[in-house]
Structure formats: C-alpha cells, structure tokens
Amino acid sequence: MLEATEKFFNLPVKDRMAYFSSDMTKPLRYGTSHNPTIDSALQWRDCMYLPCKLAEENVQTWPAVYRKEALDYVKEMNNLTEILLELMSESLHLAPNTLRNVLGPDMLHNMVLNYYPACPQPDLTIGFREHSDKSTITILLQDEIGGLEVSHKDCWVPVQPLKDALLVNLGDVMEILSNGRYKSIAHRVIVNSNSKRLSIGSFYNVAYNAIISPLPHCVDETHPLAFKKVMFMDFFKKFVSRDLDGKNALDYVKITPIEEP
Ligand SMILES: O=C(O)CCC(=O)C(=O)O
Ligand SMILES: [Fe+2]
Fold it and tell me: Using CA positions, which residue lies closest to atom 1 of ligand 1?
C-alpha cells in the first residue's frame, strides 16, 4: 500500500491537482497543509483523502494508480476495526457489539495518504501541527523514516516506526463516547532534510449526521457527564474551520464543572 501511495505522489502535478479541492468537507480530495485558506503557517505536507465507506461501489472514483491496493487494504482495516471495537467495548465493561453498534450501519471510514517531502530547513517548519484526530480510532501505517511524535506529560515523545506494525490512535469521538475514560492523543509530525516520509491514516467514525454523546454506561456518580451532545458534522466543522492547536475542538463540547463556592 505504501508503494502504491508513493506512485500517486510521484504523478505529474496536473494529475494530482485533478483531485484538488479547498472544500475540507469533500471526502475525495487532494490538498496541502491542513486548511490552507486559514492556516497561520502552511505545513510541510501534501495529502490525498479517500472516502472508503462503500469502497467497492466507489472504487472507480479513486485514483487508478492505487485502486486495487487501496481496496485490499480497506478490507483488512475494516476487519481489524471490527476486532478493535469489540475489544474496546469489553474494556469499558460494555457488551462486545456496543461500540460497533454506535458507529452504526453508516459508519464512516476516511483514509488519508500523507506525503511529507524532504525539507531543506526542517527547523523552520512542521509536517503536521499538534492535533488530535476527530475519529473514534485511527489506524496508521507509516514507512520506516519516523517523525510522528505523541504528547506525553507535556513532552513530545517520538514514535519509533516498527517494520510491518500498525499504530492505533484514539480520537476525540472515542473520548466523548467513553465520557473521558479513553483520552484522545495529541500528536504532531516533524520533518527532516534527508528523506521524504509517507503515512496512511484510516479514520473510523460515526455518520456525519449522527449525534454523539457519552454512552450512558460510562456516566455515573464518580464519572459525571463530561460532554454535551453534538452532531458529528458540527464537531468536524469546528476542527477544519480553525488552525490546528492540540485538542481544542473538544473544548466546544466539554461540560465545565461548576466550581464549589
Ligand atoms: O503522518 C503521521 O504519522 C500522522 C498523520 C496524522 O496525524 C493524521 O493524518 O491525522
Ligand atoms: Fe492525526
């Protein structure tokens, strides 16, 4: 899949630009940075977004250069996601099919292919600014170059790439559904002057028109309701309509506890 992705980014600019759109809610699009119309500084990154729900039906709209590989990869990621959602439901003491049912028959799966070119002055820029994903889970495949860092105790910790390993990130929607028992992870990508880097994220989500709120089982006296109800599309729009800055989209739905006098 990484080789097929590289072929796409090696296509002539005009072939890649055929997919370009500045509409951040368009599921199939080629782009750069995060949202170039509002980013305070552009990020050293190009990307191609692929809608993977109903992949078999939509495959003809995908760039031909990786159609077959991407379709096979989507099937594998879907199978893995079914297993992960089951295990995560159990770890929250819920029936195994709970999270899968919450994602529902219209579960979204969007894939993003990231390309970070080698950068002559990496200290002056960043590949992907600090953010948390808006997903329930994100499954990430990366090449052997490295550059991804996760936030841990106010430090940036590099994620060493392991051959043939996938990385699973928890996103903001999982933090909301679990009422904060699972925390989404803030992460960023730095670039380097020696080599380009490729990564592929598979983002699993509820449907855009689904209303998300903490699951009743995750709310009790010791874990009071921490998030308001929100339509996923409204939450997603908060993310794409502002500069990337850590987990700030969650502030929009957080319930702030009333301070005791
Ligand atoms: O390139 C990476 O390792 C991470 C990409 C990422 O964070 C994303 O696509 O949301
Ligand atoms: Fe991310």
Answer: 199
Atom 9 of ligand 1, residue of closest alpha carbon: 201
Encode pLDDT of 2-61 as tens digits: 999 999 999 999 999 999 988 877 889 998 877 777 677 788 899 999 999 988 888 999
Q: Spell out which residues have Cβ within 5 A of ligand 2, the ion.
A: 133
Q: Does a structural domain hold residue 257?
A: no
Mean predicted lDDT score pLDDT of the chain: 91
**How many CB atoms lie under 10 A from the CB of residue 261?**
3
Q: Tokens 């592929």 — which residue?
A: 200
**Considering its fold, how many domains does the chain have in total?**
1
Q: Which of 34, 114, 141 to mutate to test the pocket of ligand 1 (most atoms within 8 A of CB)?
A: 114
Q: What is the CATH number for 85?
A: 2.60.120.330
Assess if residue 23 is contained within a domain. yes
**Ligand 1: lining residues by beta carbon, under 6 Å:** 112, 114, 128, 133, 140, 142, 148, 187, 189, 199, 201
Q: Is residue 258 part of a domain?
A: no
Cβ within 8 Å of residue 227, ≥6 positions away: 175, 176, 179, 180, 213, 214, 250, 253, 254, 255
Q: Containing domain of residue 180, as a range?
A: 2-252
Supply 232's token pair: 């996923």
- The answer as to whether 187 is a domain residue is yes
113-159 tens-digit pLDDT: 999 999 999 999 989 999 999 999 999 999 999 999 999 999 999 99
ipTM computed for the complex? 0.98
